[in-house]
Design goal:
Strand order of the largest sheet: 4-5-6-8-7
Helix content: 25-40%
Order of helices and strands: HEHEEHHEEHHHEEEEE
Number of helices: 7
Shape: globular
CATH class of the largest domain: Alpha Beta
């Protein structure tokens, strides 16, 4: 696989004069983890990542200590019975493995938090991977059993919050 197979050909851009808050909102709204900073001639002059923003907030001491501790200790995955829960997805390398605990324990945080294009691929992890982080404007649970279940169904757009009861896979919305 080449980079051209994965790269975004329409990157989100911001100007250096925009505020960090505006750039962060743009990343959130566009569903990306970074933006290209362009100068007056629209040529790229830099890149700003969600990590850059988080580190700047922490370094400035703007995050309460209890929140900082919570974020540092936050587990990015959980295995319960026949299910593995992740925020967004897993890398292709992780999906090639057969030991779910090894795969999750060695996965890059970026993949767990942002990887969206591999989660529905077949795998031999022995569990169904339950994920979100792929918002849909309407009620559309993405069933790909036995490999995955996607349940991020639109509350970001003002829609209902969705939950799924396992193992009977009953869907609830409020």
């Amino acid at each position: 696989m080449n980079l051209g197979d994965l790269m975004n050909t329409k990157p989100v851009t911001v100007r250096p004069t925009e505020t960090v808050a505006a750039a962060g909102r743009r990343m959130r709204d566009e569903g990306v983890g970074c933006v290209v900073v362009t100068g007056p001639t629209r040529k790229p002059v830099g890149i700003l990542t969600d990590r850059d923003i988080v580190l700047a907030v922490v370094a400035e001491g703007r995050l309460p200590e209890a929140h900082e501790k919570f974020l540092r200790e936050l587990k990015l995955h959980h295995v319960e019975g026949q299910y593995a829960f992740v925020h967004a997805g897993l890398s292709r390398d992780a999906l090639r493995l057969s030991d779910v605990h090894y795969a999750l324990g060695n996965e890059r945080p970026r993949s767990l938090l942002w990887q969206r294009n591999t989660i529905d691929l077949p795998h031999n992890l022995g569990v169904t991977v339950v994920y979100g982080h792929t918002p849909m404007p309407d009620m559309q649970v993405r069933w790909n059993l036995p490999f995955s279940i996607g349940i991020d169904t639109g509350s970001v757009y003002g829609g209902k919050l969705t939950a799924i009861r396992l193992p009977d896979e009953t869907v609830f919305q409020v």
